[in-house]
Amino acid sequence: MTEALIVVPVLMLVCGAMVEFGLMVYEWNQTLKAMQVGARRAAVSTPLTDISALSDYGASLSQGDPVPMPPPDPPEPGNTYAVSCGAGASPCDEAALTRLMNGSDDDGSGITGIRDIAPFIAPENIRITYQHSGLGYVGRPFGPVLTVTLEVRDLAFDLLLLDMLVPITIPAHPVAITSEDLSDCEEPC
């Protein structure tokens, strides 16, 4: 009886910790996969914010010239090398963000959205950044070739007990991918 009084609580604590840790790994993996799918979708869709500042290369370049590499250091004031929207930045286009989050379930096309993989991720937890990649040429028909980075911000794990005691935030998981045509082709391409 005495042995059971010592061993049973320890055994329950170990089993509970294994369940909580398993849920944590599962949600972390879901979040990472959702960010990968979302980044791919953002790289082939119309931008979620105005990226016209990223097409301005100044007067030194003309139509057809290769795009210069962005500087490795932070840009000087007035030069724009990246544009962000979403969590902690300017708001994203609402319709485009909804398409990114929910996919295209309403039209039956079967395109997967972020919430199809991780339903606990809300639009206010997503941040999208479009950044110069140094690829392509000036005057490219569908805009510049950019690096699209998608990350999750301020998202806490939804566990059974541990999150009530200590809220644990899921890491940002930035996923970057090189853009393609940045067009949904809703109008004639």
Tell me what the structure shows.
The chain has 189 residues and is of the alpha+beta class. 31% of the residues lie in helices and 14% in strands. Strands 1-2-3-4 form a four-stranded antiparallel β-sheet. It is elongated, with a radius of gyration of 22 Å. The mean pLDDT is 79. Pfam families: TadE (PF07811). The chain crosses the membrane at residues 6-26. InterPro entries: TadE-like_dom.
Keywords:
single chain; about 190 residues; alpha+beta; 4 strands; about 30% helix; elongated; transmembrane helix; TadE-like_dom; Pilus assembly protein; transmembrane
Give a quick precis of the structure.
The protein has helices at residues 2-43, 94-102, 114-117, 162-165, and strands at 82-86, 126-135, 145-152, 175-178. It is of the alpha+beta class and 189 residues long. The mean pLDDT is 79.
Give the rounded overall mean pLDDT. Answer: 79
Report the helical percentage.
Answer: 25-40%
Biggest sheet: strands side by side, in what order?
Answer: 1-2-3-4
Number of strands: 4
Q: Give the low-confidence spans.
A: none
The dominant shape is elongated
- Structure annotation, total helices: 4
Element-by-element helix/strand order? HEHHEEHE
Domain TadE-like: 3-40
InterPro entries: TadE-like_dom
Protein name: Pilus assembly protein
Transmembrane segments: 6-26
List the helices and strands and how they pair.
Elements: H1 2-43, E1 82-86, H2 94-102, H3 114-117, E2 126-135, E3 145-152, H4 162-165, E4 175-178
Antiparallel strand pairs: 1-2, 2-3, 3-4
